[in-house]
Specification:
173 residues, single chain
């Protein structure tokens, strides 16, 4: 099954975000241990994240031009594993799939949240370039056209728009 450690991270992140969200830049540094937890998750799962982004970008341009998943992508071996992981990850039929095992210890949305927290920490100590790279990586994990944007504010307390807002802060004149 899915690694339960990500559930704890998701709950802690959402609690932190919900208590500090008020139209301001979120100060995750006020939540003891959250920044270190995020930093540890990013370090521990960086390789999985790069594999995820590679899978996403392999299919992203086809999905950007389509409003549906082509029939030949459905359950054709390990093809497009990332999409099925996000869509069907907890279903029994999916858990038996070969590529499920590759992703069973990785939560892409949890990783996006961890990058967001780490970027906030980097900004707090003046590392704007490194923070921007974390925001961009988090954005890339959701796909070029946001076709993997399953970030739900009710579940995560974070949206793709929050990522965009942070990225745009660096790009405005």
């Amino acid at each position: 099954g899915f690694d339960a450690a990500w559930n704890g991270w998701g709950s802690a992140f959402k609690r932190s975000y919900a208590t500090l969200k008020d139209g301001k830049v979120i100060d995750f540094l006020r939540t003891p241990g959250l920044l270190q937890w995020a930093t540890d998750l990013v370090a521990q799962h960086a390789e999985d994240a790069w594999r995820w982004v590679a899978d996403v970008f392999l299919f992203t341009f086809d999905l950007c031009r389509s409003d549906h998943i082509p029939v030949d992508w459905k359950w054709s071996g390990d093809d497009f594993c990332s999409y099925h992981y996000m869509r069907d990850g907890q279903h029994d039929s999916w858990a038996g799939r070969r590529c499920w095992h590759r992703w069973s210890n990785f939560c892409p949305l949890g990783f996006v949240a961890a990058l967001f927290v780490r970027a906030q920490g980097l900004l707090a100590v003046g590392y704007q370039d490194a923070a921007l790279e974390d925001y961009r990586m988090a954005s890339a994990m959701l796909g070029w056209c946001r076709e993997f944007n399953f970030l739900d504010a009710e579940v995560w307390g974070l949206t793709a728009e929050d990522l965009d807002r942070e990225i745009y802060r660096f790009q405005r004149p």
